[in-house]
Design goal:
By secondary structure, the protein is mainly α. The chain has a domain at 3-66. Helices cover 68% and strands 0% of the residues. The chain is flat and about 60 Å long.
Length: 96
């Protein structure tokens, strides 16, 4: 699920129980705008923090590569771990 859809779900669940008079149409639009600006700001800050390090990596002979393959392998591994229900088990529990 994309992070935008996740934000919309949180907004819907969080504000669905409040009276309609609390939130007019304009207030909801501003709330969605604030969330979008917050996400863009966070992404920009992370980009700026990483850009200097990446520039040094390239300067000293590092070759940029596409990390999509590693991302897909990680997602498949995470799903398999989550399905097994062993996500929280880092060590064996006594009695098993």
């Amino acid at each position: 699920m994309s992070s935008c859809a996740w934000c919309c779900c949180v907004l819907f669940v969080g504000f669905s129980n409040l009276p309609a008079s609390w939130f007019g149409q304009h207030r909801i639009q501003y709330l969605v705008l604030v969330i979008a600006v917050w996400r863009l700001t966070f992404g920009y800050v992370v980009f700026m923090l990483q850009s200097r390090t990446f520039d040094l990596f390239e300067y000293f002979g590092g070759e940029p590569r596409n990390g999509v393959f590693v991302l897909i392998v990680g997602m498949v591994w995470l799903r398999s771990v989550a399905r097994c229900g062993r996500w929280h088990e880092t060590r064996p529990t006594p009695g098993r």
